[in-house]
Write a structure and sequence with these properties.
- It contains 20 helices and 13 strands.
- The protein is of the alpha+beta class.
- A hairpin with a 4-residue loop joins strand 8 and strand 9.
- The two termini are about 30 Å apart.
- This is PAPD1 protein.
- Its cofactor is Mg(2+); Mn(2+).
- Keywords: Magnesium, Metal-binding, Transferase.
- InterPro entries: MTPAP-like_central, NT_sf, PAP_assoc, RL.
Length: about 525
Amino acid sequence: TDAEVSTRRKTFTEVQTERLEQAERTVLIKCPPKLNEKKLLQYLSSHGNIRSHFFFENRGIHALIEFSEKNSIASLQDAIGIPSAAEHHVVPFKSRLFTFTLKNPVSQAAEETLVHLSPQSHIPVKELIQKLCHADSISHQMYILLNEFQLTEENIKLRFLACSLVRDFARAYFPDSMVKPFGSSVNTFGKLGCDVDMFLDFHDVQKHTTKMKKGPFEMEYQMKRLPSERLATQKILSVIGDCLDNFGPGCVSVQKILNARCPLVKFSHQPTGFQCDLSVSNSIAVKSSELLYIYGCLDPRVRALVFTVRCWARVHGLTNSVPGTWITNFSLTMMVMFFLQKRSPPIIPTLDQLKELADEKDKHVIGGYDCSFVSDLSKIKPTKNTETLDALLSDFFEYFGNFDFRKNSINLRKGKEVNKPESSPLYIWNPFEQDLNISKNVNQPQLEKFVAMARESAWILQKEEKTQRMINKEPWGLAALLIPFGKSNPSKMKNRMKGMGSETIRSLLDSLKLNNANSLQKAVGK
């Protein structure tokens, strides 16, 4: 749609700023079970104009209401009471989460209307496979998968609202602070149901440097000094974590993980249904989110391929929601980006090329690392590459099924294979912190399993007789890749594993046995 195209061209920062501002004008209401939509909206409109709203199901029906003016919320809050404390005593923190119940439910029950509910989770893989079988090409199948799994407009609004509600807490201590989402919630590669990564940002540094030039005095706040930034981060997160735990409506299972490389507070936000991770400003993580945002906006094939590869990896147990020696979604995404940089002509530019397009305002050096790249999408020339997704998917598996992982590493700055700087099985350069390998956690058996699955998938796509399979009502194309292998014919698989260490084959076959039972369960449960 035209609207979508115009929103697509905004810079990452513009989109973020707009959505954060929108979230500030938003409230969340737990609705009565017998709901008349018109009555609810009519009542709320008495407090101010409603710009947008939607309903969703999350242990009862909830409404997200976005007002046009922020002061409508204050007007509504004036009318809202404090829960009567019969058996519980309440913590009197007033948020933007409300519960509405009917005063006389019996008389109003007859007026109940069916409301349209926005889905906040994606369909199970089993259902997806059935949908894919009706498509007419692999490319069409990949777009169906993308449409089923990608974040919806409503889900994104809910994510920004969750950040905005946490910000209300942070502001009690730090009035200028912001809470912003990063990672999959904003980089265009998030799937429905993914966690919300958010960080606390105190950096209004630019404003202050200009103000300080005036007047005869150097002026500064007296502030507590601590021996390290890490310690300050830990203390701030510890207090805000306690705050959410003690006073935050709907914040449950609060865990403080302060000794991690990046200290964070994990909690479950029941009103929105999100699992949240809160950390303190991590500018490099934001830059990574922005880089992916740019790649995701440049060409629709980029997101379709990433979503497909991630779903494929999940089904075959190559990725896992628990940290470990598996390949992460971030690493997989970077492998897809690298593959698209290597096409002829390239589908997306290298990071060095994006850096050359950067102007003054795009210059960012963070902790000694140069993180500059162009933010204005219109300055990037569209690709001349016209390959179909059918070809790209097949070539992706072919490419990584035969990649020389022993010798080469993956470098997105240059867009070419570079000799490995050290001996990790899989080496993917962190695009910004260039002395880090983002896939350092991956071990040899996991990498070899990835290679075996990639080869198997390339083989299925090349050998497949699409029309025959469609006549036999068998899953074809992408659908055939989303069914755990070894189910139909394990002996074929053994032949294609020649040339791998016997140890690896043994562990692979074991993991396949395990996986067949698990991965369907997991894929459906996820």
